[in-house]
Amino acid sequence: MNPSHFTRPVWRRPAAMPFVDEPLAASERVDLAVIGGGFQGLSTALAAARRGLSVRVIEACAIGEGASGLNGGQVIPGLKQTPEWLIQHFGNARGEALIDFGTHAADAVFGLIENERLDVEYSRAGWIHAAHTATALAALEDKNRQWRERGADVVLLNGAEVALLTGAEGYLGGWLDRRAGTINPLAFAVELARVAAAAGARIATGQTVRKLRREGNAWQLETGAGGTISAGSVVVATNAYSDRLVPGLARSLVPLHSFQIATAPLSPALQERILPHGHAVSDSRRIVTYYRRSPDGRLVLGGRGRMAKPRSEKDWAHLQHAALRLFPMLEGVAIEHRWFGRVAMTLDHLPHIHEPEKGLLAVGGCQGRGVALMTAIGPRLVDYIVGGDPAVLPFPLTPIEPIPFHAFRQIGVGALVTWYRILDGMEG
After folding, report:
1. End-to-end CA distance of the chain
2. pTM of the model
């Protein structure tokens, strides 16, 4: 079966024409070139255009065909690390800056939707991190303490409360972060492109950049169509889809495939039992299972899949098994959508910002929080491009460090995913 069959998510596209695609000319000159039209690239383009910069966005596919339109649409604030960990590892000043950035990352998404009146379904009911072991629950208790000390709208849940809010079986407790929520990610990507174009950014889809070089005070981008773009600054917003354009960037990231399924629309009775209040959920398993309800009342559930592209519906069998383990009442409910996308992780589970040469910026590593983090980081990148002060960036500028034996590590990741799945199964 053609793998392209599995790139059609359940998410609705906005009905109106989002923007006018502006093909690349043989020669162009702009203040800022953005390579990649996902959340990060479009957020950067919108912020730059509104600061008066001339902007060209180059996207290899259609808007929404990459990770931005293929993810689960969970908008989670913060980083994977706790506030105390961030301060311990980065010091007070940088640690507090990271905490503040993460705290308000979800606000950037919901603020754009509301302020720009984007045609994007969303809910801000909150996110539950569900614990399936006593060790995981103890870690959530510590995280809850740290965030409550900072005044965050969070609360610890016992097992009965998690069961009531999710309808799922098998959790000992959990942690509810009311700052979080869900969106239609495909509609958000398409609508971001619309408002960025309306602000003046010119977007070209189905186009690639095959070479990037510095000449004097400008960057020269050679496109796949044979044209040239001269830009004062460049933001490479390709993340998990990075190639050899920036030396070492792709090899500094661990790409993973995120597989998802969506059921048929749930009956009214099942909607009363499964996520009745619209929460998003991720669990504490080594191979995380995450789920939510779609705007049209389906259960959408995702997790890590095989490292190669899928070949048949059997490649989603582990997710269907997880859905029935959590929600036995779904027995007999059809799975109507299956899809996958690529995500990028870093070894330290933090996003990285690189500036290998002056005027060339790249950000990589979302760690499962890409909707919020990549949307929020765009305006900060523009602040740095305009003002030149690295203090405005939420993360410190770091050199690109390719992972040793990167090709073998990908094979190892596939084996590790299989082993972790076995361990998770033994724990129930």
Report:
1. 33
2. 0.92
